[in-house]
Specification:
Blueprint: H1 5-9, E1 20-21, H2 32-42, H3 54-74, E2 81-84, H4 87-98, E3 107-111, H5 120-129, E4 132-136, H6 150-153, E5 158-164, H7 176-185, E6 189-193, H8 205-208, E7 212-216, E8 226-229, H9 232-236, H10 261-275, H11 285-312, E9 317-319, E10 329-334, H12 339-348, E11 351-352, E12 354-356, H13 361-367, E13 375-379, H14 386-401
Parallel strand pairs: 1-11, 3-4, 3-5, 5-6, 6-7
Antiparallel strand pairs: 2-8, 7-8, 9-10, 10-13, 12-13
Pfam families: Aminotran_5 (PF00266)
InterPro entries: Aminotrans_V_dom, Cys_dSase-rel, PyrdxlP-dep_Trfase, PyrdxlP-dep_Trfase_major, PyrdxlP-dep_Trfase_small
Protein name: Cysteine desulfurase-like protein
Length: about 400
């Protein structure tokens, strides 16, 4: 079939409003089939989970089907898929639960490249337990997170190594598999933030060596719901605080209250949508996901290369570290104005970008840019086009020239 961007764009009703969306790193538009699935569930007789009547059985099927969908997306085990309101909430849950056994002899390793959702929960849990926090540093010039430093950071006292699969600020994709190998050699667990990466590249949690992998559906055309994926045996070793009557089986043990069945229907529809982007003749959904995500990544890489090349060619624009092989996300600044002013001016022209630190707190603190407004972020998703890149570049060039674009 090949990657047909016009066919893909037709599946996103919100694009008809005419805005240019380079804001996918903060949350993508919802695909039409996702909205349809959520609406259908809301309009159906769906009760709370039970096996004694049909409406309750439907709820159980919705949950099971969503677990299977997420497992197909990332290469996990459906029995190890835990749902939560956000990646931040799930990471706090895992950090709080694991840290109940830590003491002052223990250590955790975090990175300054990560979104704060994969930093602060571990730092705060370590502080409560009296454990030591060790920091992996990125190269300010290249944006790379070197693997070699982990040989010095990780030791037999390390309990968790937390690392991103892709930076949400500059797109860097660390060698997670190599980092995980070092961590596992010392008996440490590896918690991978896959929120940014999952939307852009084929994912296999086993190949990454991730003991935990967290992802948010609203970053890949779905609803505002997240999942943390681990082997069921790993979850079995953990006991979170929970209500006495609540299920004690895995993965339900880690899900509090009644799940949002309509949003879980949306998650399944989102994975099915991703699997339909360019599946070829792949026979299983997992294989269709891998084929489609590979094709989408090849497409977005070309669009993104034009964006980065164009930004670098504009006098008065500074592009932040641009590591090779990254996810299609770039941060930049128009030298003559604050990032918030740039983003506002672009927004007034219908071009959606974000400014600030986008919760990449340590990155912008380390580069010294946070206090002056951080950066402007543009992220390419598979519904973006070369024509939209041209529109963004023209608008940025006008800002750099000091021209009035209103």
């Amino acid at each position: 079939m090949g990657f047909d961007v016009e066919r893909v764009r037709a599946a996103y009703p919100a694009l008809a409003e005419g805005f240019v969306h380079f804001d996918g790193a903060a949350g993508t538009l919802v695909a039409g089939p996702v909205a349809d699935a959520i609406t259908a569930t809301l309009r159906s007789a769906v009760g709370n989970r039970t096996t004694v009547f049909e409406a309750g059985r439907r709820a159980g099927a919705i949950v099971a089907t969503a677990r299977e969908a997420v497992a197909d997306l990332v290469g996990g085990d459906p029995a190890g898929v835990v749902f939560g309101s956000s990646a931040t909430a799930l990471t706090y849950l895992v950090a709080r639960t694991l840290s109940t056994t830590w003491n002052e002899r223990d250590e955790v390793v975090v990175s300054r490249l990560d979104h704060d959702a994969n930093v602060r929960p571990w730092v705060q849990a370590a502080e409560r337990a009296g454990a030591t926090v060790r920091w992996a540093e990125f190269d300010a010039a290249t944006g790379e997170l070197s693997t070699g430093q982990y040989a010095d950071l990780v030791n037999p006292q390390t309990r968790v190594v937390a690392v991103t699969a892709a930076s949400n600020a500059i797109g860097t994709r660390p060698d997670v598999a190599a980092i995980a190998k070092i961590a596992h050699a010392h008996g440490a667990l590896v918690y991978v933030d896959g929120v940014h990466a999952t939307a852009h590249v084929p994912t296999n949690v086993a190949e990454l060596g991730a003991d935990f992998y967290v992802t948010s559906a609203y970053k890949w055309s779905g609803p505002h719901l997240a999942a943390c994926v681990a082997a069921p045996a790993t979850w079995e070793l953990m006991t979170p605080d929970k209500l006495m009557p609540a299920p004690d089986t895995v993965p339900d043990r880690f899900e509090f209250g009644t799940l949002s069945f309509e949003l879980l229907s949306g998650i399944t529809a989102a994975v099915d949508h991703l699997a339909s982007l360019d599946p070829g003749d792949a026979p299983t959904r997992r294989e269709r996901v891998l084929a489609s995500m590979s094709s989408a990544h090849a497409y977005t890489s070309g669009v993104f290369e034009a964006l980065v090349t164009g930004l670098r060619a504009i006098n008065g624009v500074t592009v932040m570290a641009a590591p090779p092989g990254r996810c299609p996300t770039v941060s930049f600044r128009v030298d003559a104005e604050a990032p918030a002013a740039t983003a506002t001016a672009l927004g007034d022209q219908g071009i959606c970008v974000y400014s600030g630190d986008y919760y990449a707190y340590e990155y912008f603190q380390s580069t010294g840019l946070r206090d002056s407004g951080g950066g402007v972020r543009a992220s390419v998703y598979h519904y973006n086009t070369a024509a939209e890149v041209d529109r963004l570049l023209e608008a940025v060039e006008n800002r750099a020239k000091g021209e009035d674009n209103q």
